[in-house]
Amino acid sequence: MSAVDETGTDRREAPPGTTAVPLLSASGVRVSFPGRRGAAAARAVDGVDLDIGAGEIVALVGESGCGKTSLARTLLGLVRPEAGRVCFGGAPLALDSRALKAYRKRVQLVLQDPSGSLNPRHTVYEAVSEGLRIHGCEGGEREAVAEALARAGLRPPERFFLRYPHELSGGQRQRVVIAGALALRPELIVADEPVASLDASVRGEILALLLRLRDELGLSALVVTHDLGLAWNIADRVAVMYLGRIVETGTVEEVLTHPQHPYTQAMLSVLPETAVAPVVLSGEPPDPSRVPPGCRFHPRCQVLASGAADAAGVGGRCRTEDLPVLAGDSTAAVACHWALSAGAAPGGGLDGGRADPPET
User: Residue 171 — left, alpha, or beta (φ > 0 → left; ψ -120 to 50 → alpha)?
Assistant: First the structure.
């Protein structure tokens, strides 16, 4: 039997003693969108490396407009990168319609707004079975729909078959969306703000569901969020994104208990559970059509504004010297002249303190 599947991906396991091939990886990915009336193009994704291993949950964290959704859409094959490449199982992702259809059976998207994701005129059964009909269902369709709903926590599944979205709670609608993805038995899901529209009482249930699916099915996930508390509760690894670049990456414990980049520290400081003083960023929100020279965070950087970077002898580099693209693997890394210099506070806090784990 061939080890190469319908998408052209080599599924053979890595030889003993070698590093396993990431399930999904981006290498040097760049995506731009043209500006209006001759304006400069918006550099939504400006050189990103990112790996997701089998059974791994990676949180892609950043504020609105940082490029995280554009990166997620590129990883799904919905946006063609102008540079770099996306690989699945070690093989470059082909962008022709046949290859993408096979690929999307194995990589599914879960959107943040279940009300907008579900057709109000379709029953739960029709919503979950839609993907099965598009891709062709091997075996009984009814059994596959029932299994997906049960795995998503809607039991007994037959009770929900003929219900419409308006008859469900917000948490139940999100479970239907997740069931629609699970029906195709994907290897990876991309969840874009999966609990942002849900009540606090339901958020924990959906996060627990995603963790259970990882444990039971070996499912990998890329969770796109602005919420560091969510990342702490669900992710194995965190990648912090700012203005089209990943500026800090590492395990969730490394990044969220000892943040090195001033942007990560600022995001973490506003959570009520952290033991550091809140940081209020000044300056204009980042504009992807006007990426500044040097460190792209320097116009808003609290360390540079306080004079600490100049005192450490790196202020000039912060303003003029670009930083390299961080590796996409599990190695902890930061793209910050100050953090990489002797002037960085031990432990990553502005006052050298340790940030306690956030909670949701």
Answer: alpha
Percent of residues, the chain, with pLDDT higher than 90: 74
Chain CA centroid to CA 228, Å: 12
Burial code of 117-126, b = ≥16 C-beta within 10 A, e = fewer? Answer: bbeeeebbbb
Strands in 237-242's sheet, in edge-to-edge order, are 107-110, 188-192, 220-225, 57-61, 237-242, 245-251, 333-334
d(CA 32, CA 80): 10
- Token look-up 């993805």 returns 181
- The CA-CA-CA angle for residues 24, 242, 349, to 5°, reads 105
Sheet of 24-33, strands arranged across: 42-52, 24-33, 83-88, 91-92
Single pTM value for the model: 0.88
To the question of domain 24-33+40-235 being in CATH 3.90.1150.180, the answer is no
Q: CA 263, CA 239: separation in Å to the nearest integer?
A: 12
Q: Which residues are bridge partners to 239 per DSSP?
A: 60, 249
pLDDT tens-place string over residues 207-224: 999 999 999 999 999 999
The b-or-e profile of 98-111 (16+ CB within 10 A means b, else e) is: ebbebbbbbbbbbb
How far apart, in whole angstroms, are the C-alpha atoms of residue 224 and residue 222?
A: 6
List, in order, residues 6 or more apart from 8 with CB less than 8 Å away. Answer: 91, 94, 99
Output the six-digit token pair for 117.
């994701």
Hey, is 84 helix, strand or coil?
strand
Residue 342 has pLDDT above 90, yes or no: no
Evaluate if residue 17 carries a pLDDT over 70: no
Contact between 85 and 22 under an 8 Å Cβ cutoff? The reply is no
CATH 3.40.50.300 residue ranges of the chain are 24-33+40-235
Which residues are within 8 A (CB) of 76 and not within 5 positions of it... i.e. 6 or more apart? 104, 107, 109, 190
Closest CA to 7 of 109, 107, 116, 98: 98
| Radius of gyration for the alpha carbons in the chain, expressed in angstroms and rounded | 21
